[in-house]
Design goal:
single chain; about 625 residues; alpha/beta; five-stranded mixed sheet; four-stranded mixed sheet; about 15% strand; disordered C terminus
């Protein structure tokens, strides 16, 4: 602790932490610390740290004390105990989900310690609304290097040698994509950043743009120089208002500093960037649909070739890269292709950013080297499953990805091996599920999303996904037939072959992988009218165990459908015809009784008439349960 007591407090103001009132916490800290005469405190904000599940987050320097789940009410204690008395507030430390031990320092938390942050290098460490912070961390040094001594072909060659592949999902060589566009002869070329992130549970691109917008701008400007573009577009979802605000501010600052505009940094290269807000159509993440949307047309894909590199925006050669791809470029230029190529695997270089969500203890953004196993991500970084429950599967790659089982936990994560297992890298969604998840229901959820987001242009995508969805609905409602599984597989192959874009072509993946790895659950739904996970509403029933019922009436009073019969001190019975299966009876029954159960495909012995508490003799079936 320094003698003069100088502190810096950084409050996370990404979307997640702002929703937890982090801005109010910052204002309260500013007011409280302004009153301290003997302590010099600077309060500032950053973008997303990535550890969204622990927000609102604050880091106090020196030392890197890491505070989690803050409230405005915690401010006074932090000021008095930590800043004045020199005793950090232990109750606000992160608690390790495995050991339960409080961890005071940012650097010692496994969630961060086991990551390798390249794309997210500045996230949580700079004020995203102040360009000087970015410049202090080698910001725009790569652009200066390029414009002062590298030709466009040298830049392309460096990116090609690095092995960088598109982080939007397809995994195409970034350098090769630039080269194809650079070779085209045209008076105008366009550079486009695809920030149209629409996967359920995905927030990687949004968080990068909120926390480090200048790295996207710098990477995009370098790409424009390489391909010969004079104008660019950032296509971003309108549902990301904070990212839009910070991008617009960053563009203004970059222009004022000479990093954008005419004759950048005194060179002959000029480049300007426009921000185009999309209306939220998932299909506009596809390159040609995105281009159509910028042009003011309905976002629908078109056949390729010609590819955007030959005929893109307004018929001119165009290159489209994902946010994460562009954020990687400045580091590659600064540190060199050889440095970057040493990270990852033989064919999948560098790092990948995942939005780790679902039934996981440490949910949030993680950046890891390609080749790391699913087990390391889920258990070492993610801290395992909530409640120490058994891992069942992970949906990797968003709604068009695949669901991998526990047997795949030691699978290295890269483009090739995920594809071989039936999943995809995708844009980076990773949703963990436990034994309480029905895999048929999960497949239905993801297919319902892609079906609703289909632009309708392709018959197989529009109608084929609808037919698959109807079959899944029938299976989860107990109306499935033995031939349904084979029909799903047949439809999936037809949709893959007949869809124009990857939204349709990959939409059957959740169904294909759940059939491949969890076929027994499909068969249980169809042949036994049973949902093993007790999720599918039409296949579950609630019963009151007569030997445990105390006749207290709590469940009866809480039933919204008046489906529970029985007066006080009488064993209660659930009228299955009236029961709406809301589960409220199970929730309100006192733990000391545990008289209500949820079952599927079986029925315990229960009375068919009201009898007094204690009058039930048939306990054999209950012992089996």
């Amino acid at each position: 602790m320094p003698d003069n007591k100088q502190f810096k407090i950084f409050i996370c103001e990404g979307t997640g932490c702002i929703s937890g009132k982090s801005q109010e916490i910052r204002l309260a800290l500013e007011q409280k610390t302004a009153e301290l005469g003997s302590v010099n405190v600077k309060v500032d904000f950053t973008g997303c740290h990535g550890f969204c599940e622990q927000g609102p987050i604050a880091i106090v320097e020196p030392g890197g004390i890491f505070y989690t789940r803050l409230t405005v009410e915690d401010v006074e204690e932090i000021v008095q105990s930590h800043l004045i008395d020199g005793k950090p507030v232990e109750r606000l430390f992160f608690k390790d989900p495995v050991s339960g031990q409080p961890i005071p320092y940012y650097r010692d938390i496994n969630f961060y310690r086991k990551q390798q942050r390249i794309i997210l290098r500045n996230c949580g460490h700079i004020n995203p609304e102040r360009i000087e912070d970015y410049i202090e961390r080698e910001g725009y040094a790569a652009l200066k290097k390029v414009l002062s001594g590298m030709s466009p072909l040298q830049v392309i060659d460096e990116v090609k040698k690095s092995g960088l592949r598109g982080r939007g999902g397809a995994g195409f060589s970034t350098g090769l994509k630039w080269e194809l566009c650079q070779k085209e002869q045209s008076d105008i070329k366009y550079m486009i950043c695809n920030a149209d992130e629409g996967d359920p549970g995905a927030f990687m691109d949004r968080s990068i743009m909120e926390a480090d917008p200048h790295t996207v701008i710098e990477g995009m400007t370098i790409a424009a120089y390489a391909i010969g573009a004079s104008e660019g577009y950032i296509y971003i979802r309108a549902e990301y208002p904070l990212a839009v605000k910070r991008l617009r501010l960053a563009l203004k600052q970059a222009e004022e500093k000479g990093f954008l505009g005419d004759k950048i940094l005194g060179s002959d290269f000029s480049f300007k960037i426009n921000v185009n807000e999309g209306a939220g159509a998932f299909v506009c993440g596809e390159e040609t649909a995105l281009i159509a949307s910028i042009e003011g047309r309905r976002g629908m894909p078109r056949p390729r070739p010609p590819f955007p590199a030959q005929c893109g925006l307004w018929g001119k050669p165009s290159t489209i890269n994902n946010v994460k791809s562009l954020a990687s470029v400045p580091v590659i230029i600064n540190k060199g292709a050889e440095w970057y190529a040493k990270i990852g695997t033989e064919k999948s270089k560098g790092t990948a950013v995942f939005a780790l969500t679902g039934k996981i203890c440490n949910s949030g953004l993680v950046e890891v080297p390609m080749g790391i196993t699913l087990r390391e991500i889920i258990y070492d970084i993610g801290g395992g499953l909530i409640g120490n429950k058994e891992f069942k599967g992970v949906q990797n790659g968003g709604p068009s990805g695949g669901c991998l089982p526990a047997s795949a936990l030691d699978l290295p994560v890269d483009f090739e091996r995920l594809a071989a297992a039936g999943a995809i890298m995708g844009s980076g969604g990773m949703i963990v599920v436990d034994s309480q998840t029905c895999m048929v229901d999960l497949a239905k959820y993801f297919l319902s999303f892609t079906q609703a987001e289909s632009c309708g242009k392709c018959v197989m995508c529009r109608e084929g996904t609808l037919q698959m969805l109807k079959i899944l609905e029938a299976i989860t409602e107990g109306r499935g037939k033995e031939e349904d599984i084979d029909l799903l597989l047949e439809l999936a192959k037809a949709i893959q072959a007949g869809s124009l874009c990857s939204l349709g072509g990959t939409s059957p993946n959740p169904v294909l992988t759940t059939i491949r790895y969890f076929r027994d659950e499909y068969e249980a739904h169809i042949n036994e009218q049973r949902c093993p996970a007790l999720v599918c509403q039409q296949l579950i029933q609630f019963y009151i165990l007569p030997a445990k019922c105390q006749g207290c009436g709590i469940c009866k009073r809480g039933c919204p459908a008046d489906a529970i019969l029985g007066d006080k001190r009488m064993i209660h019975i659930i009228d299955q015809q009236k029961c709406i299966k809301c589960g409220n009876c199970l929730d309100v029954c006192p733990e000391r009784f545990n008289a209500v159960i949820k079952v599927s495909g079986e029925k315990p012995a229960v009375p068919d008439a009201l009898i007094p508490v204690g009058g039930w003799q048939n306990s054999e079936s209950e012992e089996k349960l």
